[in-house]
């Protein structure tokens, strides 16, 4: 028989007997422990230390004495004595929920009991978000192309207009950075050096497209610019990339459609055709060069990257614009004012072309962040269709049946290319 005296008040003690097997353990407990608690302790002798931690030790009751009743493997009461945890606290949180109810491994049915999210509502929200992104992107692109062409029709100086559009975009980014609406990236010498190449090719692509817009119909320029995947595959192949046969086959209708559209174009002009082709080369080289030179600056988001490319492109372009056509600007300005009647009209058109040029590029970067590259590529293809149809309706450009057929074939080829290139990426990811 083992007896443990638990002293709270020397004058007031009570004795409780706990039976385990054939042995009895009379314990003198304080009057603070009622008979119900003692009965609970006798039923679960291994939980006494845990009970002490939840309810605190009564005055005069130490964990050292209580541990004589327990298995020697229990260490929690010893920890509370050594580290002096306050009454009512334990060194480790204790959960009253069984492990099987919370641990998926212990209870596989626990995962299935969690209600699944409403997939239909989630799908509807994603569709709505995608529609908003594409809606803004298309609208801004249409507005830019319309007012860009309106300015060039009365003020045919693409070098100055292209410079002004880059200037507006640069001011726009400085406003966003100043108001902290967009986090300003950290500028370093290696970052600026890495941007010099992409900015140069962006400048070539932008000014060449603007020259093409000034010489031919907007719809024709966009049909030729839809051949950009052809240049992308060719230049990337020279640099060591390999493409499956389906990618090469997808660019054949692009070449065929662009050729048919060029031959049947009413407003055909070699400068317009050359400008659109050079623009494709410039933007393809910008994309290729950006992947190689900006690998170590992935922390810079797409919008900030485009902002700094615009600023450096402006520094590239404007001095050359002064040299190429600066002597004609004043005379051309007076002719433009005579054509529109009010100077404010010309100013508003130029400002709209500059603002929406930057906005549609900004939206394209944001759309690329929100959606997959394949969806973006398909959306970009459909964007050209929407822009071509819109500008034909606005400017009432005559379209021959063969010209429309060639444009459709070229656009369809671009769609096939986006599908083929997407399957190539999936195949390379599976190999990795």
Structural overview:
The radius of gyration is 38 Å and the shape is globular. Strands 1-3-2 form a three-stranded mixed sheet, with helices on one face. β2 (14-20) and β3 form a beta hairpin. 69% of the residues lie in helices and 4% in strands. It has two domains: 4-109, no CATH class; 144-431, no CATH class. 31% of the residues are buried. It is mainly alpha-helical. It has helices at residues 35-43, 48-55, 63-66, 76-82, 99-102, 109-112, 119-154, 158-178, 189-215, 218-225, 228-238, 245-263, 270-293, 302-325, 329-340, 343-370, 373-395, 401-431; strands at 4-5, 14-20, 23-29.
SSE topology sketch:
Elements: E1 4-5, E2 14-20, E3 23-29, H1 35-43, H2 48-55, H3 63-66, H4 76-82, H5 99-102, H6 109-112, H7 119-154, H8 158-178, H9 189-215, H10 218-225, H11 228-238, H12 245-263, H13 270-293, H14 302-325, H15 329-340, H16 343-370, H17 373-395, H18 401-431
Parallel strand pairs: 1-3
Antiparallel strand pairs: 2-3
Helix pairs in contact: 7-16, 7-17, 8-9, 8-14, 8-16, 9-13, 9-14, 10-13, 10-17, 11-13, 12-18, 17-18
* Overall 3D shape: globular
Largest sheet: 3 strands, mixed
Write out the strand line-up for the largest beta sheet, numbering strands in chain order. 1-3-2
Fraction in beta strands: under 5%
Radius of gyration equals 38 Å
Number of helices: 18
**Using DSSP, what is the number of strands?**
3
Q: Could you estimate the helical fraction of the residues in percent?
A: 55-70%
From the structure provided, what is the oligomeric state, counting identical versus distinct chains?
single chain
Protein name: Sugar phosphate transporter domain-containing protein
Region (Disordered): 96-122
Domain Sugar phosphate transporter: 128-418
Keywords: Membrane, Transmembrane, Transmembrane helix
């Amino acid at each position: 028989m083992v007896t443990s005296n638990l002293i709270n008040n020397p004058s007031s003690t009570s004795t409780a007997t706990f039976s385990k097997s054939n042995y009895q353990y009379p314990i003198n407990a304080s009057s603070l422990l009622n008979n119900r608690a003692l009965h609970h302790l006798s039923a679960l002798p291994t939980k006494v230390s845990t009970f002490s931690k939840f309810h605190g030790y009564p005055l005069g009751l130490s964990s050292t004495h209580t541990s004589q009743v327990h298995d020697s493997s229990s260490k929690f009461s010893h920890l509370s004595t050594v580290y002096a945890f306050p009454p009512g606290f334990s060194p480790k949180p204790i959960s009253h929920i069984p492990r099987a109810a919370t641990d998926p491994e212990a209870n596989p049915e626990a995962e299935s009991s969690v209600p699944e999210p409403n997939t239909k509502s989630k799908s509807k929200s994603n569709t709505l978000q995608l529609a908003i992104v594409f809606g803004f992107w298309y609208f801004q692109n249409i507005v830019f192309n319309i007012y860009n062409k309106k300015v060039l029709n009365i003020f045919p100086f693409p070098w100055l207009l292209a410079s002004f559009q880059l200037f507006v975009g640069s001011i726009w980014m400085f406003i966003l950075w100043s108001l902290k609406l967009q986090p300003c990236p950290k500028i370093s010498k290696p970052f600026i050096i890495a941007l010099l190449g992409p900015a140069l090719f962006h400048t070539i692509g932008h000014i060449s497209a603007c020259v093409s817009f000034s010489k031919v119909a907007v719809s024709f320029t966009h049909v030729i610019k839809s051949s950009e995947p052809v240049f992308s595959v060719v230049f990337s192949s020279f640099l060591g990339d390999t493409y499956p046969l389906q990618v090469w086959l997808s660019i054949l209708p692009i070449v065929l459609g662009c050729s048919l559209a060029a031959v049947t174009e009413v407003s055909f002009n070699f400068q317009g055709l050359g400008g659109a082709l050079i623009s494709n080369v410039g933007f393809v080289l910008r994309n290729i060069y950006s992947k190689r030179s900006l690998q170590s600056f992935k922390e810079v988001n797409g919008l900030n990257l485009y902002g700094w490319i615009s600023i450096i492109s402006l520094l590239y372009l404007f001095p050359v614009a002064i040299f190429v056509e600066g002597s004609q600007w004043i005379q051309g300005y007076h002719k433009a004012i005579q054509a529109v009647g009010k100077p404010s009209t010309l100013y508003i058109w130029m400002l709209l072309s500059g603002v929406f040029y930057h906005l549609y590029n900004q939206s394209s970067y944001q759309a690329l962040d929100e959606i997959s590259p394949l969806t973006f590529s398909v959306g970009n293809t459909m964007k050209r269709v929407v822009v071509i149809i819109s500008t034909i309706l606005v400017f009432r450009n005559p379209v021959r049946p063969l010209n429309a057929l060639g444009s459709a074939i070229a656009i369809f080829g671009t769609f096939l290319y986006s599908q083929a290139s997407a399957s190539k990426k999936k195949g390379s990811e599976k190999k990795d």
